[in-house]
Amino acid sequence: MEENGRIVVIGGGPAGMMAAIKAAENGAEVVLLEKNHLCGRKLAITGKGRCNITNTKPWGEFATHVHPKNNFVKSAFFNFSNAATIDYFNSIGLETVETQGNRIFPKSMRAFDVVDALVGRMKQVGVKLVTDADLIAVCTDGSQFKCTYNDLSSPRLIRTEVIMAKALIVATGGLSYPATGSNGKGYYFASSLGHSITRCFPSLTALMPRSYVSGLYDVELKNVGLNLFVDHDLVQSEMGDLTFTEDGIEGSLGFRVSRKAVNALENGSSVELVIDLKPAVPISELKERVRNEVASFKWDVPVINEARMKKVLRRFMPAEMVDPFYETSKGLTVNTLADRMKDWRFPIARHAGYRRAVVTAGGVSLDEVVSKTMQSRLVKGLFFAGEILDLDGDTGGYNLQMAFSTGALAGQSAARYVSAVS
Description:
Blueprint lengths: L5 E5 L3 H12 L3 E5 L12 H4 L4 E2 L3 H4 L3 E2 L6 H6 L2 H10 L4 E4 L3 E4 L4 H14 L3 E3 L2 E8 L4 E7 L7 E7 L1 E4 L14 H8 L8 E3 L3 E3 L10 E11 L2 E13 L2 E3 H16 L4 E6 L6 H14 L9 H8 L5 H9 L6 H8 L2 E8 L7 E3 L20 E3 L7 E2 L4 H24 L1
Parallel strand pairs: 1-2, 1-11, 2-7, 11-20
Antiparallel strand pairs: 3-6, 4-21, 5-6, 8-9, 9-10, 12-19, 13-18, 14-15, 14-17, 15-16, 17-18
Helix pairs in contact: 1-6, 1-13, 9-12
């Protein structure tokens, strides 16, 4: 197929779809290749199926949740900000709503509605969508790109197809949630075109404690403190909610410390999480409350056995937490109870990996991409967007906003590029 100012977008996730839309809105001929049968497969399961599209934080606060180089995102953010994202989705028929913590969701609380809105907009602006297209090779002669892919639409016959493009946008995502088709193949294509890939590791993933007790499964803690220690040094302190699951400690609070924790684990360091169940209560006050609660039972014999200790614990925590807290607090006494509640320790053995990771840390080196256009510094006409870049954010809509922002900028920049060279 001959190219004619065409832009090919690789990947039908949030960054790829936004890139395709913005390129088409700017007058370009756009073809999007997606390996899966449908676009947005990972997007459809984000936020427990509700999809936290973005948040309303101003750039100064938003930037503190972006890693490793938040300044790289600044141009993309101001080109297509969180406010612009909200307005855009409303303009294409997806009503949004703001929830606690400045988070923005579709009003329907259905992630599939976000996917449908983006797919619908692609069709509306003339993007040619090719699904079941598994890219196997990309090369360039300096003036155009040759993309070779396997057409998997027929279960009985795999056909190899070739499409040419004046500009190429790679938005293939990373390695997180491989069940949705993420396999890191985009790193291979970027590398084959001369780009460096920084070390990748899972972020926003579950952390598995040593000697984990099943009684903690599905217990949720609200408004607790969490301290992360690496090699016995305190490296991060957070406040919020966390959840114990079969995979370990996660939830918004667990995810916030997971990036540093995973990186430390993979570097061979010791990692420990310390939970403060009563962060708003000073230790002296908590000790006094423990003494008062014990006294209120008016036990004839001043012996605090297991049964009595659990009765005391019920005054300070949900019933479902009593047994696992007691089991993981060896040698617990009335005198040590307050200290243990403010210093509940979990040495971490491992992490849940990409299987449970929300996002991939690492990726295409930011030093090799122009932040004001998302164009490669090494290859003319090559653009990147989304998770494939060495960018990741905390939980709370940051990663999706970066996908939309970098995707929008890549699409607009690619459209300008093909217009200038055609």
